[in-house]
Amino acid sequence: MTTSESPAVGLSTRPAAVTNWQARGLYAQTDPDAFFPDKGGATRNAKKVCAGCEVQAECLEYALVNEERFGVWGGLSEQERRRLRRNAA
Hints:
Blueprint: H1 15-24, H2 44-51, H3 56-65, H4 78-88
């Protein structure tokens, strides 16, 4: 991902902190299509990558705060994130 395509843009007012978690994310070393499968597509491969990623929590937090509607973020699919939000409410 380039900086302009980065999911972390706008996450924090501390650009160095944003870049830091982005740079450590394993998604940067993986095919991005794995994290954004077609509707109904498998998320297993992306979740395996997330399970071993040191920034999984930061990624999930970003997705929840920004209400990301598509893709696998922090090891959860869009449906799993919706369920998490509903249970937290």
